[in-house]
Amino acid sequence: MISLLLYSVIFIVNFTLSPIALLGAEKKEDLSTPKLTDDCHHMLKERGKKIRHQQRIAALLKKNEDLQKRAIKQSPTTAKKLKFNKSSLIREQRLVDIKIENMEEQIIRRGCPGITLKSKSIKRTLRKRSDLIKMNHEK
Asked: Residue 60 domain-assigned?
């Protein structure tokens, strides 16, 4: 009689606790799903800063061109200074473009979500790398 009672209690406890255990497992899965890590968030934030910097440089280049058109007529010295300024802005723009491409490659390599491939060179680089990986796996 006692053993029957003990078996029934174990049976009831087993079936009542198993759904609770399953709910706990589902909660753990929700917590462990991959989310935007701090590194990814920081890298995306830095990329955003570089893109804003790139846009500022483009605006300065446009303003420089407008000023050059006016300065040629008024003052040749100012025109020379603006021409030098334009060349330094172009160098800065190229440098920022390279930095942005490198940042995008790092973000993609780390597997961070939320980035679209805008640059053709990045797409080309990733295609080459994936082709190399396929060739190595085939051997």
From this structure: yes
Where in the sequence is the domain holding 107, given as residue range(s)?
A: 36-138
Residue 31, domain member (yes or no): no
Does the residue 12 lie in any domain? Answer: no
pLDDT of residue 77: 87
Low-confidence ranges of the chain (pLDDT < 70): 1-36, 114-139
Question: CB within 8 A of 113, min separation 6: which ones?
Answer: 34, 36, 40
Report pTM.
Answer: 0.56
Amino acid (one-letter) located at 52: R
